[in-house]
Amino acid sequence: MDKRIEELYQRYLSGELTPSELDDLKRQVPFVSDEELWNLMCEDFSSSSESARMTYESQQKVLRNIHEEIRKDKWHSRARRLLRIASMLILIISLAAGSYLWYESFTPTAPVYTYVSVKAGNKSTITLPDGTRVSLNGNSQLRYNVVPSKHREVVLMKGEAYFDVTKDPSCPFRVKVNDMQIEVLGTQFNVRYHKGVIETALFTGAVRLSSSAFAKDYRLYPGKKSIYQLASHHVTICDNDGSTDARWKDGYLAFNSQPLGEVLKEVENWYGVTIQIRNHHLPKDKLTGAFYHETLESVLHSLSMQYGFKYHINHDHVTIE
């Protein structure tokens, strides 16, 4: 078969055929045998890995196009045979697609995830396949399935992560945390998942928060923060806390009006130690402040001076009396 016909046929299927090229195709079709036309059409569809995925709408569009051209220009018997061939081919594709979808419905195709885990006392920064950078705080775990320009999903299983997302308007970036989804195109934000609360602090760009538990979706803008209480499904939108939000990635162990018990939990996570509190009469007042690249000894000394307790460090175990 003439290569020119094959080229014109491919352009016709892709919708790129010009009027003059269509006339050229009409002139040449009568001189091609039915068998050659059939082989051309079958080879085109069978050689594509997407053929079985052709939607019903796409199938009907191809068929309507052929019908319309025949109606307008009244092709001869050769064209009518081509129509019959096309109709048969559409039927074959429909059956193939049906079989494929039926097979897919009974064949699990679970996405392949890469897992990342950071122990308490450590921090890590990873670069995803699409160029997105993710910084992970201590005692954090996530998994991701990222295929550039096709699929970008991260699941934060626990802990805290800062995302610097590579912009791709054609492929949204999604972060799932429990039953909430954060969707962005390209932005910087921090997510903290701790004790049944999900905090999302936005620094640049915009994000959309959604969940089956929400009455509506929420949209965040730079400088704003959402606090989602999982137990009550309550969402609060407020301003970012500049004294604490995401400061961990710059080396700050920061607190804003937190009870000493919570502060000590943060110290455990930050330094990768276990703290045993034997003194059950510690003050209940709250701490605001920050430590920058301080040693464990230095932090405990400062806290003991303020709260009046004694402590002992034995390797990765701390006792407070």
Automatic annotation (TrEMBL):
Annotated InterPro entries: FecR, FecR_C, Ferrdict_sens_TM
Keywords: Membrane, Transmembrane, Transmembrane helix
Residue spans crossing the bilayer: 82-103
Lineage: superkingdom: Bacteria
Domain Protein FecR C-terminal: 252-320
Organism whose genome encodes this protein: Prevotella histicola F0411
Molecular function via GO: sigma factor antagonist activity
Domain FecR protein residue range list: 116-208
Protein name as annotated: FecR protein domain-containing protein
